[in-house]
Amino acid sequence: MTESLALVLCPSPTERATLLAVLESLGYEALVADTPEGAIALFERRHPDLVVLEDGEGLPSLLRELRQRRRHEVEFFVMTHAEEDALRALEAGASEVALTPLHPALLRHRLQRLHAERLLQRHFHGLQQLCTTASRIAGILGWGWRPDEDRFHWPDEAHQWWRGEPPPNRAALLARVHDEDRLRVETTLEHLRLLGRQAEVEFRLEEEPPRFVRLVAEPCEEEASLILGVLVDVTLARRFEATLERLTQYDELTGIPNRAHFLRAARDMIRQATPERPQLLLCLDVAGLANINDAFGDRAGDELLRTLAQRLAQWAARHGGVASRFGSDEFVALVSLGSESREAEPIEELLATLHNPVGVLTTGGERQELHPRVTLGGAWIPAAGTDVEALLRLARHQQHQAKERGRRYFLTSDAESGETPLLQLESDLHQAIARQEFFVLYQPQRALETQRLVGAEALLRWRHPERGVLPPIQFIPLLEETGLIVEAGRWVIDTVCAQLAAWSDAGLPLRVAINLSPRQIPDDGLVDHIAECLRRHRLPSALLEFEITESLAIRDPERASTMIAAIRSLGCPVALDDFGVGYASLEYMLQFPFDAIKLDMSFVHRLVETPVDRAIVRGVVTMADALDKRVIAEGVETARQADYLHALGVDEIQGWHVGKPMPPADLIGELRKERQRTQ
Questions:
Q1: What is the pLDDT of residues 383-404, one digit of tens each?
Q2: How far is CA 88 from CA 55, 68, 82, 531, in A?
Q3: Cα(583)–Cα(603) distance, integer angstroms
Q4: 634 is catalytic
Q5: Cα dihedral 592, 598, 601, 605 in deg (nearest 10)
Q6: What is the pTM assigned to this prediction?
Q7: Among 340, 457, 634, 652, which one carries the catalytic annotation?
């Protein structure tokens, strides 16, 4: 490397020592300043080629001052302590930014690259000599391009850099670029051709594994029709940065996000929580980890933690969330459970997954099957608040209460929730049916082809004598946990049948769907109860529909298939609810004898912006049509979403765009108005 002069302003002794050692190895003479004023004085007197600064409060003004005083091209290398400060440094005029603590190898690589680019900008007229020099520096290749002829000029060593024949023109170059980066590279080349200004872009080459490349170029001063530049292979640097990023963002043992990563992600997620689309923050404790380590060795305990972490992370990802390891035996998760009537089922699914046996290797080299014991505590968002730290304390408190009471989990939506309110709420639930405190709301469903109301979904509510009307997130999980959901579910079936009979007698028949809980599926008397309600209310069975979630069907396909067949034998249609959350393939799920498929609202929310989701919906509709099944989309909130769904062939929609959950009188009023308009 040619002898060069570097100016260093770095208060940190450790980072300064690293810098000076690397600069010396690269052939730089280093000038060290102790203050910004001293740096400006040295800069004016010695005119360095490279300035290395440590980020601080006065960095932007110092950079601007130095850039104004330069007499030739100078590279400004800034060390910053946090990612959010990097953009500020670049906007102030930094050529390159690096996160501290500095890694000598990565620092050397970056300074080498800056040096090579400076040489290129000073010596455009010596393209061949520059290419030879750049080729000796790891991963750098000089090039020339004549846009009018659309022809690239490559040095002899280009074959080695490209690992084959170099691209002769722009189209050939773009063909070598990764699909996701191609438009950015094409735009950069077009700017070079039309604007005649320096430009740069970083992209991936379509190789396996992908190679990361930085392109820097500008028009040649001596020959306007020629553009000169370099390609820099930055793959090793990017991989090293990714490794460092992973070490700072992910738990080393389990590979899932660590506390810092989780807190950042959680704050972003919580901003999107609404009462209609709540989120759940969970705290999980693994019991007996110390005993496992003592009995079978630390390796066995580590293997158990890794397995549980992966199970939790996969569950959280299926529900649009994130999981994290917070302590040696503590995990947390934040998930979005959008379906209003299905808050408890994912928790049951998670517990069933976590409690599956885990095979570990003991200190003696033998395989041992462990049976994990996990307790959960949770807080609903936004009902219990939106402050992450407060929600974590609340979820941890609920987890401790669950452990002390011998329960698998406690969930709350009360920011002040403690032992007494939760136990009191459970006690009140036992009396709710007898005191007639439950009631049913109906959320309408509209056919897209006719734009008529064709059905509704029944949603359970509780009018607490002291706390007023409670949303499902405050009592459905408790119904599930205590097993009271079986009794409450039978009450819902009877109530809905009575309401349907009244509407039919009034000449306004309407199909109503009822959700079935996982706790109701093993109920051997459920089908007999449905049959008895249909008979007692003299109700056409086709008006009573039941919804079973995809996860429930996959968890116990044999029992689910038997239950579905038994319900359909009564003449009641059965719908597959929350389809598409990630449990099974479309082909497999359609083997069940469902009459309808309800698309999960996550598809609807992304439908307008995401072509992939539109393609998935189109595929579901195509297969459903072939099998003569209705397709219902839930969570429809806008007219634009409804238009897309109609164009894709969806049969019915449900959501706030059609109507909020409403009392039976309001729903039948809407139905009467509609009938009058069409007569």
A1: 888 888 888 888 888 888 777 6
A2: 10, 18, 11, 69
A3: 15
A4: yes
A5: 110
A6: 0.52
A7: 634
